[in-house]
Amino acid sequence: MLDDLKLIHERDAQDALGVAEKQYQQLSHDYEVELTGFADVSNVVLAGMGGSALPGVFLRAWPGTKVPFEIVRDYNLPEYVDQRTLFISSSYSGNTEETLAALSEAESRGAQIVVLSAGGKLAEYAKTKKYPLFLIPGGIQPRMSSFYFLTAFIQILEPLGLIAVGKQAELKAAAEWLKDQTVSWKVDVAIADNPAKQLALELFGKSIVVYSGPKLFPAANKWKICMNENAKNIAWTNQYSEFNHNEFVGWTSHPTQKPYAVVEIRSNLEHPRIQKRFEVSERLLSGMRPAPEVVEPKGETLLQQLLWASNYGDYVSLYVALLNGLNPTPVELVEKLKLLLDQ
């Protein structure tokens, strides 16, 4: 059915595939927010959940920060947060209760505050308090706006001298490169010539496990989230070499029948020992787990490979959703949870 365009458009009622196709444009978005009054920043704390925290994982791999950086997925902040903390409050909906609670605590500690949101309570509060507000374009799901968030983070950190100079330019340059890379994944490209559709067919009907090395882990994490929310498919992720110290052994026994599909994102930019671990682990686990579907990211730089692997995962998860007979966009269970928590 992945070549049946009429059926695809019926199931993909909010055009999630169209959003995936245009994601490269998010990398060139200019927020035009002026940052003044920030000084003596000794650490950065990003408070966010789900898709609003996801792009923060990218920062650890690319470009990296000059000061300690932590993502907080909680109501409370680490004890060290104080007046020298750059606190980034990130919520696409603007109504994420954990993020709002963390913001209140950051204020009480005197942290230096920046806000990212597409609206809701958080955006209104930022306007009232005159906090710098990076207004994320709305109308799509948080998990599909990752590059908007990443672009905003870079436009915060580079002017404040917390990352190397030139990263905004590198991000914009990567946008057109990514556009060219995704041509064969589009919905109007037949299965025979479409690697994203081919991989989706291999993963369909199974629980999906995504592994990577540390450099590509942000992309593996995005695969996991998009498989959960786009395809409504159970999935998890881990990275080498941590995998070899525990989960590796778990594959050798129960359950004896393993209804899983394994995806390994193997980058030539990972440490040579990480690359060897992939190969040796595959040999040792032969016959004990499904043979991995190996994804080798395209690109000469770490940024290019991260963007390529992330966008590829978006397409694959959307095609798995369609094979599951589902509309990829809604996350109705999350909305029900929020309503019940407020009762």
Question: What distinguishing features does this structure have?
Answer:
Rossmann fold; 13% strand; alpha/beta; globular
What can you tell me about this protein's structure?
It contains 13 helices and nine strands. 44% of the residues are buried. It is globular, with a radius of gyration of 20 Å. The protein folds into two domains: 23-175, Glucose-6-phosphate isomerase like protein, domain 1 (Rossmann fold, 3-Layer(aba) Sandwich), CATH 3.40.50; 182-323, Rossmann fold (3-Layer(aba) Sandwich), CATH 3.40.50.10490. The chain has helices at residues 5-11, 16-21, 54-61, 97-108, 120-129, 146-157, 167-181, 195-203, 217-229, 247-250, 272-284, 302-323, 332-341, and strands at 43-47, 69-72, 85-91, 112-117, 133-135, 207-212, 235-239, 260-265, 293-295. It has a five-stranded parallel β-sheet with strand order 2-1-3-4-5, with helices on both faces. A four-stranded parallel β-sheet has the order 7-6-8-9, covered by helices on one side. Helix 3 packs across helix 6, helix 7 (167-181) packs across helix 12 (302-323) and helix 9 (217-229) packs parallel to helix 12 (302-323). It is of the alpha/beta class. The longest helix has 22 residues, at 302-323.
